[in-house]
Write a structure and sequence with these properties.
The structure is a homodimer of 147-residue chains. Chain A is an alpha+beta fold and 147 residues long. Chain A has a single domain, classed as Gcn5-related N-acetyltransferase (GNAT) (Aminopeptidase, 3-Layer(aba) Sandwich). Helices cover 35% and strands 33% of the residues of chain A. Chain A contains five helices and six strands. Chain A has a five-stranded mixed sheet, with helices on both faces. The longest helix of chain A is centred in the C-terminal third of the chain and has 16 residues. The interface between A and B is large, with 64 and 64 residues. Chains A, B: Pfam families: Acetyltransf_1 (PF00583). Chains A, B: Keywords: Acyltransferase, Transferase.
Chain lengths: 147, 147
């Protein structure tokens, strides 16, 4: 298992991961179209965004998006924001998510980030335990407004 | 009162706002140094980041940072992430924060963002009521890990 930056050929597998999710199912379709292609290209071209996949011998079994947010707080430190963390349903319980998050945290430390942060839907109890085990603190309310 | 992108000359006033905050006081100093200058320049140069100030006749009385995160979810939509929302203590209760957030939400809608999101420390009860009034839903746990 390696973690690496996604390439265009990974897009169908990543969309499958997003759509397979209980909450993602209502929001997305697994069919690559021009809009998804453009979004992929935008992420890929942005030096502060990385779409990462967990690649098990050529098969994408996990994904996440890393965003490095520059800021003034904490003496001008960047913070890592993690979005869209998914592990393929039939590969859960194999510590893939744990290894992927540890990889992300190492990458953020190497880059000099002062903090890693993410939000997780309050209905995802398993995810909360998972992040608390990794050392995250549920110190904040995560507020969302659909536009 | 206008809301506009911050310029280098606003940096001392913005740092004052960050340091005056109850939680920011432990983390930052109001003295502009090279590190803060570099962080300001990094935000300013990034087309997906904007440092915004509330300018009342030439005086900075509020600030916030807007980050537009590209993504695949929600059919490849960007989301607006809001950080570092501050209103000068002696100017609270004048709906400056409300007007600033409404301005941010309009800007995100104009850009085509599908969502606005932020996290707020669980100790900030006033802030929670403020965001709920604006239509935000406290649907997520906000997880943080200091690096």
């Amino acid at each position: 298992m390696i973690f690496r930056t996604a390439v265009r050929a990974d897009l169908p597998a990543i969309l499958e991961l997003l759509v397979a999710d209980q909450l993602g199912r209502a929001r997305d379709r697994a069919v690559v179209d021009e809009t998804y292609e453009q979004a992929f290209a935008a992420i890929d071209a942005d030096p502060r965004n990385e779409l990462i996949v967990g690649d098990d011998d050529g098969t994408v079994v996990a994904c996440m998006q890393l965003t490095y947010i520059p800021g003034l707080s904490r003496h001008g430190a960047e913070r890592l924001q993690v979005e869209a963390v998914r592990v393929r349903a039939d590969r859960r319980g194999q510590r893939i998510g744990e290894r992927m998050m540890a990889w992300a945290i190492d990458r953020a430390r190497d880059r000099g980030c002062a903090m890693a942060q993410l939000t997780t839907d309050k209905s995802r109890a398993d995810a909360h335990r998972f992040y608390l085990r990794l050392g995250f603190v549920a110190s904040h309310e995560g507020m969302k407004l659909a536009l």
